Amino acid sequence: MGPFPRASVLYRLGIKLISYDRPGYGLSDRRRGRTVADAAADVEAIADALRIDSFAVIGRSGGAPHALACAGLLPERTTRAAALVPLAPREAEGLDWFNGMTPSNVSEYKAAESGHAAMTELLSPAVERIRADPTRLVPAFDEDLPENDRHVMADFGIRSMLADNFAEALRNSAAGWIDDALAFSTPWGFEPADISVPTFLWHGDEDVFSPVDHCRWLGEQIPGARVVIQEGAAHFGALRVMPDVLSWLSAA
């Protein structure tokens, strides 16, 4: 989730941007037991409905693995793929998955390892408070937030847009949030090494939400992937590089 690029940027690049709510978020029906790979079928259905033959995909943070699913499972339709501050698969060989991750995220994914009931128990007490005040999920000045992210979050416009997105995502329940965490903690349903379309990976080296080693691991697995690790940047630095990444996607 994150702010949409400015309309002027999309117009200049000649991009028609289409986004959708993953199951359980916003007005999308929940799909219990969904995997990361299931996103490819959703995107294909949307493209079919809109009569779009081919497309580029981009995902940030939790959306990044789902964008990679399209690259891996829809190679005949996906022209290029970009994943910003991505997570790697939970079973990634040789990766210390939790190293460098903020304690709140560690607790969330540890609960996900125990299953749906544990995740629901962890998140449910906070959901109503967050829905009443979505700014609780905007980490403007958290002590654990890297300095670069604090600088990004000092922008009132960005904080407001993130709060609006969080409110929409949780308008009915935390189902999407819960199911995302479960999907990230189980096999994705495809192998990053099988991705054959041009892929761009971006990460800030101070990210504490999805640590930079996740991106490095993916870069080693995806053949020919372009990997950019930005020194001094963190998780929300991805919002600032979005126009450049969109430009790369539109060059296909």
UniProtKB/TrEMBL annotation:
Residues 10-237 form the AB hydrolase-1 domain. Pfam families: Abhydrolase_1. InterPro entries: AB_hydrolase (IPR050471), AB_hydrolase_1 (IPR000073), AB_hydrolase_fold (IPR029058). It comes from Planotetraspora kaengkrachanensis. GO terms for molecular function: hydrolase activity. It comes from the Bacteria. Keywords: Hydrolase. This is Alpha/beta hydrolase. SUPFAM superfamilies: alpha/beta-Hydrolases (SSF53474).
